[in-house]
Amino acid sequence: MTLPIRNVAIIAHVDHGKTTLVDALLRQSGTFREGEEVPICVMDSNDLERERGITILSKNTAVRYKDTLVNIVDTPGHADFGGEVERVLGMVDGCILIVDANEGPMPQTRFVLKKALEKGLRPIVLINKIDRPQADPHGAVDKVLDLFLELGADEDQCDFPYLFASGISGFAIDHLEDEPVDMKPLFEAFLRHVPPPVGDPTAPLQLQVTTIDYSEYVGRIIIGKIHNGVIRMGQQAALVTETGAIVKSKISKLMGFEGLKRIDIEEASAGNIVAIAGFADANIGETVTCPNDPQALPLIKVDEPTLQMSFSVNDSPFAGQEGQFVTSRQVRDRLMRELETNVALRVEETDSPDKLLVSGRGELHLGILIETMRREGYEFQVSQPQVIFREVSGRPCEPFETLVLDVPDWASGSCIERLGQRKAEMQDMQVGSNGRTQLEFTVAARGLIGFRGEFMRLTRGDGIMNHSFLDYRPLGGEVESRRNGVLISFDEGVATFYAMKNAEDRGLFFIVPGVKVYKGMIVGENNRSQDLEINICKTKQLTNHRASGGEELVQLQAPMDMSLERALEYIGPDELLEITPESIRLRKMSKEKRLAKR
């Protein structure tokens, strides 16, 4: 006898507690044995996810509650990984929208909720982190209702059920007056408010591929929901590709989900989320169906990319010294492989065989791809991210974003002034009682390129910045993105303390003494608006005379730490970012390349 099923996605703004809540659900459902050591954020299995504390890839797990199998899908909160959210929402019949009791709805809350409403889902709203100081649970519920109305939700969707919870403390309650005990009220809400999957087990098989995994033993594994029919281990099936071609094969492995494990099963019927092997060339959005009566489901549609940059072979003087994969063929093959699983990514050829145009949903989306390739041993260089313009109704348009800043009161004026120079329009301003102000703007995406570093300086590192794609609007004119000039090394060698100390009054360095540099490498930021070439390798001429200040301790000011995201935002149109497994270097384009670009 098959168990009743509920398929639920967890959606929220980044850092509102999705993965922590899934931890509590797994613990209280009996997934882990007593005394078993369980890591925090157990669903964030990727190294990058654990380091950054964010979810990048959607993942699913299954728990049992009262003889019901509940499939839970954890989704990313960043709009940059919206392609993951869009394809996963087609697998589920309900969703939980998690909102922070203090912050309320944020830009990505709007994004994920909009996608859920478009799919016709009726979300369960969970107000999380109610045990924190400054929490305003009822105020958060009112703000969520305003957001539902703003996004055009129907009457049934606006009458959403809501609960209060603390994922880290492991409890959920229906009313604030209730005694917090465990997650039982949330499990009950799943059974009450999430409809069972719709599907006909007697109809021909239809399974849509939503996620792709790989195993060294069985090859490509495809994960998806069975929309109709029954799938059995060892049966013959057909894959309907994007082009409409039909590829027949045998189901060599059939797996279901239980907790965090995949378990071998003999058969599964409509409504189940399963993993199958047997189709070596399956891609996301394609349909596994009955070979006698192949019927394809509509392909998954995701929003188009808004940002693009060029990936090219590293041609700096230090090329090939640190990377394992350095040729254009190796970089191209890796990007083409990424296209198979990353549905929101686009890769285009250019006039040059050594250069590819890669388009994505934002700086973070492309930054995670670059960091992943770097860790795999690839060496290449990338250009400044550029906004993708598009024609709408015959008019040139550009992407606009919703920007929300949470800043100390004393920094709000300077933030408003800087964003005004970048053609941002203020939509809302809320002055809190805790000495902080929340500002909301609508701004062109190109107006935000390079703003994060400036924002951190304006708020002295005490500001929080969130933004997500809004829509395409007519071009907004020139955007002022003034930046100081850079300090450029005009010689190849090793940076010395002596040379850096003498040039310290020229600006702020990105490197420390002892780092290898080359001609054209950017080593710091100038205090003025022009670029300045300096000799960073100059050594002190030694003599037999003892210097009077020889015993004094001389120190350099701390260099600016150039992380990958910061460097991507920092580089200008005539600059490149050299990426190797060991280093991130900024450099000027050669004169020939600058002329070719013009």
* Rg on CA atoms, Å: 27 Å
Q: Count every beta strand, where a strand is a DSSP E run of 2 or more residues.
A: 35
The unreliable regions are 35-44
Major β-sheet profile: 11 strands, mixed
Strand content: 25-35%
Broad shape: globular
The helix-and-strand class reads alpha+beta
Helix percentage: 10-25%
| Average pLDDT over all residues | 82
What is the number of helices? Answer: 15
Distance between the terminal alpha carbons, to the nearest Å? Answer: 69 Å
Report on this structure.
- The protein is an alpha+beta fold and 598 residues long.
- The chain contains 15 helices and 35 strands.
- The termini are far apart.
What keyword list fits this structure?
598 residues, 8-stranded antiparallel beta sheet, globular, alpha+beta, 35 strands
Blueprint (SSEs and pairs):
Elements: E1 5-12, H1 18-28, H2 47-52, E2 59-65, E3 68-74, H3 82-88, E4 94-100, H4 107-118, E5 124-128, H5 137-150, H6 155-158, E6 162-166, E7 171-173, H7 184-193, E8 206-215, E9 219-228, E10 230-232, E11 236-240, E12 246-250, E13 253-258, E14 261-264, E15 267-269, E16 273-277, E17 287-289, E18 307-312, H8 328-341, E19 346-349, E20 355-360, H9 363-375, E21 380-383, E22 386-387, E23 390-392, E24 395-408, H10 412-421, E25 425-431, E26 436-444, H11 445-448, H12 451-458, E27 464-474, E28 486-489, E29 493-494, H13 497-502, E30 507-509, E31 516-517, E32 521-526, E33 532-534, H14 564-570, E34 575-579, E35 584-588, H15 591-597
Parallel strand pairs: 1-3, 1-4, 4-5, 5-6, 28-33
Antiparallel strand pairs: 2-3, 6-7, 8-9, 8-17, 9-16, 10-15, 11-12, 11-17, 13-14, 13-16, 18-20, 18-21, 18-22, 19-20, 21-34, 23-24, 24-26, 24-27, 25-26, 28-32, 29-31, 30-32, 32-35, 34-35
